[in-house]
C-alpha cells in the first residue's frame, strides 16, 4: 500500500512537469524578424495550447503508469519462480515486482521530457501556417 501511494504521488508530480521544458526553435526568416521575439513566443504558446486542446500528444503519465504496472507483474512472476526455488515465495515475488516496476518507472521518467512526436508535428504545422519555419525542439 505504501509503495502504491508513493508511486501515485510520483506520477502526479511527473504529470505536472512532463512537457514544460522543450519548445520549438525557429529559423530567423523574414516573418520572425518582422514579428519579433515576444510575438513569436506568444504564437508558440498559442500553438502548444491548440495542440493540447486537440489532444495531439499522448499522456506520458498514463504510458509510464501502464508500463510500470506491466513490468511489476512480470517482475513479480519472475520473483515468484525464484522465490519458490529458494524457499521464500512471498519475498521473491515482492522483490521481483518492486524491482522491475521501479526500473521501468525510472526509465520512463528519464524519457518523459521529450514531447510526443504527434504533438511536435502539430505545433510545427501550426507555426508553419503562421509563417514561421520551425527547425526542431530544445
Distance between the termini: 38 Å
The number of domains is 2
Query: What value does the Rg take, in angstroms?
Result: 21 Å
Number of strands: 2
Shape: rod-shaped
In DSSP terms (H or I, runs of 4 or more residues), the helix count works out at 5
Largest sheet, in brief, is:
2 strands, antiparallel
Pick out the low-confidence regions.
none
Biggest sheet strand order reads 1-2
Q: Percent helix among the residues?
A: over 70%
Beta-strand portion reads: 5-15%
Helix-strand topology string: HEHHHHE
Structural class: mainly alpha
**Average pLDDT for all residues:** 79
Summary keywords:
single chain; 138 residues; mainly alpha; 2 domains
Describe the structure.
The chain contains 5 helices and 2 strands; from the N terminus they run αβααααβ. The protein folds into 2 domains: 53 residues, no CATH class; 55 residues. Helix 3 runs antiparallel to helix 4. With 138 residues, the protein is mostly helical.
What's the helix and strand layout?
Layout: H1 2-17, E1 24-26, H2 30-53, H3 60-86, H4 89-111, H5 117-129, E2 134-137
Antiparallel strand pairs: 1-2
Helix pairs in contact: 1-3, 2-5, 3-4
Précis, in short:
This protein has helices at 2-17, 30-53, 60-86, 89-111, 117-129; strands spanning 24-26, 134-137.
